[in-house]
Design a protein that fits this description.
Blueprint (H helix, E strand, L loop, with lengths): L1 H12 L9 E8 L6 H6 L3 E4 L3 E6 L2 E6 L5 E6 L11 E4 L4 E6 L4 E6 L2 E6 L2 H7 L1 H4 L2 E2 L4 E5 L2 H4 L14 E5 L4 E6 L4 H4 L7 H4 L2 E5 L2 E5 L5 E6 L6 E5 L17 H10 L2 E8 L4 E7 L14 E6 L5 E6 L12 E3 L2 E5 L13 E9 L1
Antiparallel strand pairs: 1-24, 2-3, 3-4, 4-5, 6-7, 7-8, 8-9, 10-11, 11-12, 12-13, 14-15, 15-16, 16-17, 18-19, 19-20, 20-21, 22-23, 23-24
């Protein structure tokens, strides 16, 4: 009788089972593209530029690639700059310009409208604004979000920052200084002692609308900050069901040993948005045996989640296409992957050569 009562109550209240959305990842196509050797072997940054192109930089040149077949669309050369003058690059979508960091010159170079303009930085600002940490997230024509490590904080007066509550800054190129501070380290970093490499402290992040979504390699949590008010944020666990993260490296002082442990351990990789599917992904990098002689033995999975940081599911992907998924580039429907493990064609070919799609089932 009690069971019947609960059943009728459920019908009257409109009870429904929890809806689940399942996806699978399929290999869409592989392709072969021969491009100049100097770009295939030394590129340092590759990302989408507009709807049709990827760009990569080497030396004092920038290569523009057609997205559909990765044929060389154009090569932009800057003869006034020496080889290796330009380091990592990021895109300022507000000005349709490229920002290149010059390690030799301690400054940055802006490429726009066929011209290159050099902006010197003092040494402390150069290391703070190093866009290998910033991920190139411009939030206005002159302002870019930068990640701050514990070492970076030493460049600022203590009254300006809280060492536990300062993980990001906003660098204003028009004023040539950091104008805002915000963020908080996850407990895994706060609890660690001794020599904690900066690689652990640099998060993966992306801009979605008016939000900055952040995930650290050794934290299950994802954090969403409002770009309108940096104090407005939420944090949720978006964790793997396949592995557990290692304990904070608090008892190890040797930097090499800590970095070695970090390299082989379970950790998280990039987070991405796939606009045609309106879902997000987080790469999961599984533990690699210290006895392994081949990095291609490592396994990967992908966590899918929605704009509310609610996990949808986790998909194991290594058997679909054996690649270093930690360098996967997002596409509107899936990922662009390198063929370093499964389809390596040699140094005369660009390393990215396979598309995989997320398919709803």
């Amino acid at each position: 009788m009690k069971t019947l009562f609960l059943f009728l109550l459920c019908l009257l209240a409109g009870c429904q089972g929890k809806k689940t959305t399942n996806y699978k990842i399929v290999l869409k196509n592989q392709f072969t593209t021969s491009i100049p050797v100097e770009f295939s072997t030394q590129f340092s940054t590759t990302f989408k530029w507009g709807n049709m192109a990827f760009i990569t930089n080497v030396s004092n040149k920038i290569l523009v690639l057609d997205e559909l077949n990765f044929s060389s669309d154009s090569i932009i050369e800057f003869p006034d700059y020496e080889a290796n003058d330009i380091g990592t690059i990021s895109l300022n979508q507000f000005k349709n310009s490229i920002i290149g960091h010059s390690e030799k010159r301690n400054g940055f170079i802006e490429f726009a409208d066929g011209k290159a303009t050099y902006y010197p930085l003092n040494l402390s600002d150069y290391f703070i604004v190093d866009n290998r940490k910033s991920s190139g997230h411009f939030i206005s024509p002159s302002k870019m979000i930068i990640s701050l490590t514990k070492g970076d904080l030493s460049y600022f007066p203590k009254e300006m920052i809280d060492e536990k509550l300062t993980t990001f800054g906003v660098y204003d190129y028009s004023q040539m200084k950091v104008t805002d501070f915000f963020g908080s380290y996850p407990k895994e970093i706060l609890e660690a002692k001794g020599n904690y490499p900066k690689e652990f402290q640099i998060p993966f992040n992306l801009i979605y609308g008016d939000k900055l979504i952040v995930g650290y390699p050794l934290s299950d949590d994802l954090i969403s900050y409002s770009l309108d008010d940096f104090n407005d944020f939420e944090s949720k666990k978006v964790e793997s069901n396949i592995f557990k993260l290692p304990a904070p490296f608090s008892d190890r002082e040797d930097r090499y040993e800590v970095f070695k442990l970090f390299y082989y351990s379970n950790k998280y990789g990039p987070i991405s948005y796939h606009e045609d599917l309106d879902i997000f992904s987080r790469i999961v990098i599984h533990e690699l045996s210290v006895n392994s002689k081949d990095a291609c033995d490592r396994k990967y999975s992908v966590i899918l989640f929605d704009k509310n940081l609610e996990k949808i599911e986790e998909i194991e992907v290594s058997d679909i296409y054996n690649s270093d998924w930690s360098f996967a580039l997002p596409t509107p429907t899936g990922f662009l992957l390198s063929g370093i493990c499964e389809n390596y064609l040699g140094e005369d070919y660009f390393i990215y050569n396979a598309y995989v799609d997320l398919i709803k089932i």
